[in-house]
Structures are given as structure tokens and as C-alpha cells.
Amino acid sequence: MFADETLEPVEFKSTWKKERSLVDSSVQTKDLETKDRGVQSVKCKDKEMQTEEDIPEDIQLYDDDSPELFEFLRRMEPLVSKELRKNVQSHAFDGYSVRWEEETDTVTCVHTLVNKEIAQEIPVTDLSWNSTGSVIAVSYGRVDHEDWCNHIAALCTWNLDRRVVEQDKPNVTIDQTSCLMCIAWHPVKPSLIAGGSFNGEVMVWDVGNADNMLVATSGIGDDSHSEPVSKLVWIPDTGSKGGKYNLMSIGYDGRILMWSLVQKTLKLVKGYAVLTESLPRQVKRKGLGIYPMGLSCISFNRDDETTFVVGALYGGIYRCNTETQGTAAGKDVKCSVPIHSAVGYTFAEHKSSVLSVDSSPYHRNLFLSCSIDGSIRIYSLLEKDPILTLEPNARFLYASSWSPVRPVVIGAATGSGQLLLYDLGHSRSVPVFQLEASLKSMPVYALRFNHKQTKLMATGDAAGTVMVWKLNDSLTEQTARDQEILNDIASSHFN
């Protein structure tokens, strides 16, 4: 019924797939030609012009033992010696210095510096010039905290010696998570700067190390400030022979802490405090106990590295010494080093917060202070009461400083946005210059003279604007009577 059968294969040709054919051909192409040729080349030639061959001269002293020369020297020597002695004793050129620049009689603003990356108007809290006088550092933060600090803050620097200064763009910006309240460049190392924050932390940066600028920090704890750091100052390490410096910080917690920068760490070496026992008797209250007082400013004596003056938020001013071992701060104060009162003398207090103190660079006993009460006072370390008081027409004063080059020139910053410059040799009541130091008439919180490039000074206001001023010759060239006038002011408390 079924059987195997082999049939012939049947082929069905595709109706859509066709055989492919390949053909090589060239169209619209030419051989690529390449050539090498030098263009815009510079040809150099050496040529001498207006030059003469430098032939060293063989100079020989003439040997003359003639009686005529001996007689001439014998007669002339007394006359020449007499004139030389007169020149040594003469004061005809006292105070004279060679003037390489054109003489000016005005104070002008040469730079207006603003960090455009900070969108909000963050106030300038402090200014500092580095050791070469070419770089200015600016700290930003707020001074009106009512709660935890979560503001935008930064440390910025501008190099004013550069050919082109971008006034709205700092050369270096270091962002901070807490408001930066104060800064201080190292006195010798031009790239090392310290800063103090609102949360009580002390930090040191090296702005020359772009990869890792933070060198050391105090951290937050028992060995640091428990409230905002208000001022920083570098002081010579008296126990070191290598010219080292320690860092001194003060804060609203009343502490005065001395730090040593060792192997990129901040080590606390000494601690002091201004206690309630230092208050004048008339303002003391029974049962107040011994507690720290809030400190706002500090200045070391120029001649005695152990003596310094501090100003307090309640208006007090105190003379202190790093060698003092006063009353202990109490058992409630926790710290790895002993905390003692450093106060040795109390001066007559201001009516409100003291925001600036500055020791005179030209007299060992004089220092000045300024306060929110609107007064500038000059004190002697030997006298409780001020020996001179200046009361400009300003509601508040936030900063004041002596000139580093003229003993009788003082600068002050006001709450109405003005820079006041006093010349005590000209007037002891009226400033010689009253300048608008804020574009928006905001309070000027910071003022700083330049100790190297002495014709420059800077101010910083509550709108975050820094103005760099060029001082005129009368404010920067010392006169013959400046020191005498300052000595008269210092001795006036004996009259």
C-alpha cells in the first residue's frame, strides 16, 4: 500500500531577492598633495650700537710726601672736622624724606572691592593686611545673631600689587559654614592667616596651598571658646629662640587663649579670663559670683610683649599681663590648662560696649579706645581716667587705630558710614578729613592701616563693601614736632 519513492527536486526562484554584483569605480576624487612650509617666522640678528669696550683701568694711588701737601692737610683738617661736627648736630633736615611720588593733598579711594558671588549683603567683620602689605584679607559674617548661625560667610583675599585687580572677584575665597568674626595675617609668613568663627572655633589657613588650605583648627570643645571669637593677634613666643609666634584669641565667653601652631595643629598652651571680680565696685552686685566677662578687642603693648589691654562688651577696659596668675576662673570652667584672671588694672569704663583698643606705636604708655557711646579716648597705662577724649558727631563708633607712620594721626569708623582722620597736631577736636566710606551709608565695621605700604588703608562696611584709600602726604610724612606733641599729650595727666 505504501512504498518509498525518490522525486526530482523542484526549484522556486525568489521574486524579491536578487543576486548582488560589486563594481569598483572612482568618482570626483584627486590625489591628495601635502607640502610643509614655515610662515610667520622671526629672524634674529645681534648688533652692537653706542657701546664701548669696557677696559678696566689700572688705578694707582699717587705717592706724594711733599711738604706742601702735608702743610695743606694740616691747615684744612680742623676746618673740615668743624663743619662735619656741625652737620651731625644740625636738625635742618629732621623729618625730611625723599619724595619719589607727586605730592598730593587729598585722600582718594583707589579700589572698591566686592565679592559678587555672595548674593546677600553680608557685612565685613574684619580686615587684615599681610606681611608684605600687598594682599588684603576680608572676613564676612553677621553681627546681629538671634539664633543658630546659618548665614553665608567667607574669607576672601585680593592682591593689590597685580597689574589687573578684579575688584568684584577675589583671588582666593574660602567658604565658611559659620560667620567669620575676625582674621589676622601672620606677621612674617605672607600666606598664613588665622580666623575666628561665631561658633568659637579658631582656624589657620595657608592660602598659598590651593589643594589644602586649612592648616589647623582648635575644634569645638572645652579647650576652645564657647561663644564667638571676637579678635585674634599673633604675638612673639618669648620662650622660643627661633622667632616663632603664638596666636592669642579672645571671645564673648571672657576667655583669653594662647595657641601654639605645632606640626599643623593648634595646641592650647595658656588660658586667661576677665572675671566679674574685675568690675568696678560701683557696678558690682552682691551674689553675682565669679564669672567671665564678654571681651570684644585686644591690643598688645609695643615695648612690653607681656602687657596688653582688652575691652569688654559692657564698656570696661583692663590692663592685663601674660605673666599674671590671678584668681582662678572657678570649678565650673572646664579646660586642659588652668584659667586665671589676667587683669592687673581697671580703667574708667565707657558708657557702652568697647569695640576697639589700639596701643600707640610711638609711646609705650598710650593706647586709644572707641565705643558705641560715640567717643574716642586716649588713655595712659599709668592713669585710670582718659587723658584726652574726642567726641565726633556720630551715633556709634565701631573701629579706631593709630597711624603706623605718624604718631599723632588717628583713624575712626562710624555707624553713619564715614571714615574720620584726626591729626592731633592740627586739632584735638575736629577731624582733618571726614570721608564717605560706604556707598549706601551703612555702618563701617572695620578699619585697617597698612604697615608696609603706608599710604594705603582700608575700610569695610555692613553692605560687604571694602574701600581701599590712598592717604595724602600730610597724613603719612612725620613732622619734626609729632613726637613732641605726643609726649605732651602723654604727660598731660600729670598737670
Topology record:
Elements: H1 67-89, E1 108-113, E2 124-129, E3 135-140, E4 153-159, E5 172-176, E6 180-185, E7 192-197, E8 202-206, E9 214-217, E10 229-236, E11 245-251, E12 255-262, E13 265-273, E14 295-300, E15 307-312, E16 317-321, E17 339-341, E18 343-347, E19 354-359, E20 366-371, E21 376-380, E22 388-390, E23 397-402, E24 409-414, E25 418-423, E26 433-436, E27 444-449, E28 456-461, E29 466-470, H2 473-476, H3 482-491
Parallel strand pairs: 13-17
Antiparallel strand pairs: 1-29, 2-3, 3-4, 4-5, 6-7, 7-8, 8-9, 10-11, 11-12, 12-13, 14-15, 15-16, 16-18, 19-20, 20-21, 21-22, 23-24, 24-25, 25-26, 27-28, 28-29
Task: Classify the secondary structure makeup into a structural class.
Answer: mainly beta
Overall pLDDT level: 86
| Cα radius of gyration in angstroms | 36 Å
Task: Please provide the count of β strands.
Answer: 29
Descriptive report:
- It is built from 3 helices and 29 strands.
- The protein has helices at residues 67-89, 473-476, 482-491, and strands spanning 108-113, 124-129, 135-140, 153-159, 172-176, 180-185, 192-197, 202-206, 214-217, 229-236, 245-251, 255-262, 265-273, 295-300, 307-312, 317-321, 339-341, 343-347, 354-359, 366-371, 376-380, 388-390, 397-402, 409-414, 418-423, 433-436, 444-449, 456-461, 466-470.
- The protein is mainly beta and 495 residues long.
- Strands 10-11-12-13-17 form a 5-stranded mixed beta sheet, with no helix packed on it. Strands 1-29-28-27 form a 4-stranded antiparallel beta sheet, with no helix packed on it.
